[in-house]
Amino acid sequence: MKKAIKILSFFLILCLVGSMVGCGSPENNDTGTEIDGDKEITSMNPGEYVVEVDGYKSMKVQVTLGEKEIKKIEVIEHEETPGVSDAALEEIPEAIVAQQSVGVDTITGATLTSQGIINAVQQAIEEAGGIVEEFELGIEGEEQVSTEARQRMSHGEVPDTWDMTYDVVVVGGGFAGLAAAYSATENGAETLLIDKMPVLGGNSQINGGVYASYTSRIADEMYEALGLEPDTAEKHIEDTIVGGDYLSDEKLVRNFVYGAPFFLDMMLENGLEVRESITRPGGHYGYRTYTTINGVGADIVQVQKDMLEDTDATIMLNTEMTRIYREDGEVGRVVGIEVKTRDGVKTVKAEKGVILTTGGFSGNVEMRSKHVPSLTADIPTTNHVGATGEAITMAQELGANTMHMSYIQLYPFANPNNGVLDAYAVIPFSGPSSGVVYVDEYGQRYVNEGERRDVCSRAAQESGGFPTFSIFDQEIVEKGGFISEEQLIGGMEDDRIFKADSLEELAQMINGHQYADHAVNMAAEALVETIEQHNGFIDDGNDPEFGKVIDQGIMMKIDQGPYYAIPQWPSVHHTMGGLTITERTEVQDIWGEVIPGLYAAGEVTGGVHGTNRLGSNAIPDAAVHGYIAGEIAVTGKMPDFIPEQ
């Protein structure tokens, strides 16, 4: 506990001198406790107490206490992130004083700051001789529901006997599931990994292979070779929270940011290859995004599968979970699942826990349009056919809570003909810091290329035409480091990348194609003018049109043929909402209590990304939280790569 500095008020000093000043005290019982209705408050030493605590960073909080009350709370010094923590700094002190309780709700997106202020008040109460528990009250007038009175939703028909028994059962075989199964097995658990599809990987297989990590075992060498400034964990956390409009759970963001280097290094040590580039894609303001050698998530999935094959874990494909079993009674523990296999329905007991890593629900039109009515079947998705979200519904049947379900992200650069996120659709995402320019069908810029995905998608939809295009040149191809020769050649062979010797000829090639039966008539002179203007912005180091951050010496002009164009259009991509979890990946029920034995990680969860996920955060989020879930389920302890607060 940090030391509290007591500042006695002048009034209190006079009281201590003697009764001649007319100071008195309320009548107390023999224990020094005042009984006020149902509340019992022990007398405290009034005064001002300055307490040093940690929120997201360090802060000093001045707490003014009366004999029986919390009078005032003021954060007098802090290093919290502007914008992220403002609401907590203002609202938490007001709520504590108004409710005379340290049991107030924390501010979503600023939980560390909120808890820091609460901790300061608790320390001040103790320093003043008070009892913290007496201020752990509910909101006055609000009926408090006891734990015993809350209904525990369960399946009463839990099997008496089981067809199979394992320590840990992991449902879903993407980044999160493979990481969870590996972690659980490495910690000594007999582990089963199931997937309803015929192959492992799911959306992870077709992911763009971009991975955000503030450092790595190869970072120092690459930063020096590329002339880039090293990144920090604090900046990665801040960008993620700002990018999600401050609605992210800070604890979950800290988890994946601090775990990202651990998991990336583990992949590199086991054979993962990455390109010689670290990029700063939209929404990120640090160079932290690595690209796998083939620009697809399958590169990472293959390493994970190879690692898992070297363990004793059991893998069952074409195995669909159809029920989660939760016991009745006070504990209400999840004890196993029911699955449908080619050999019929089976029951699987999980001695230590069930980990849900089943991904999102972008492929379920009914489910996504329920939360966002505009996302009808007319809008394609980048997702595989198995991304249907039924595990969320099954968990809800047991009382699991969900959050952020209406936040569904479109990927701005998908194939306009079918909505697929192919290997070529990753180039526009990786290109902003190198100088890739986005233009509409009229050859004009329509957005800050460094903006986050939801902004880019909305701007494309409001551009007045279909589709939009990414424009770049040979120098960006050769020096950007995020486009491979195989990728470029394959894109041209598939008619997904257009190549021309001049911008005028490139406009003609764009006009010579159909995009989902739509024709384009781009004026060559408009495209030339747009690119020349953008080149001038790079020379000046300033983008007065859209305010893009230009790092001179890194961002390149488009002035050396041949020139390239990639057609693109938004497609339903990532569901930010899902099951509510703790920082230990434990699934919470609608009362905020943990459902024992049930864990979740990856896109099946909510709370990590807020309203919008920054590109390249998906893999570390899924993989790191999967790894945490595996370790927590077996040992009950957080991995060492998460620093203590």
TrEMBL record:
Leader sequence residues: 1-21
Record keywords: FAD, Flavoprotein, Oxidoreductase, Signal
Co-factor requirement: FMN; FAD
SMART domains assigned to the protein according to its UniProt record, in alphabetical order: FMN_bind
Cofactor mode of binding and number, as noted: Binds 1 or 2 FMN covalently per subunit. Binds 1 FAD per subunit.
InterPro entries, sorted: FAD-dep_OxRdtase_2_FAD-bd, FAD-oxidoreductase_2, FAD/NAD-bd_sf, Flavocytochrome_c, FMN-bd, Succ_DH/fumarate_Rdtase_cat_sf
Parts of the chain that traverse the membrane: none
Domain FMN-binding per the UniProt entry, residue ranges: 55-128
Enzyme class: oxidoreductase
Recorded GO CC terms: membrane
UniProt entry tagged with the keyword NAD: no
Domain of life: Bacteria
EC annotation from Swiss-Prot or TrEMBL: 1.3.99.33
NCBIfam families according to UniProt: flavo_cyto_c
Family: Belongs to the FAD-dependent oxidoreductase 2 family. FRD/SDH subfamily.
Entry protein name: Urocanate reductase
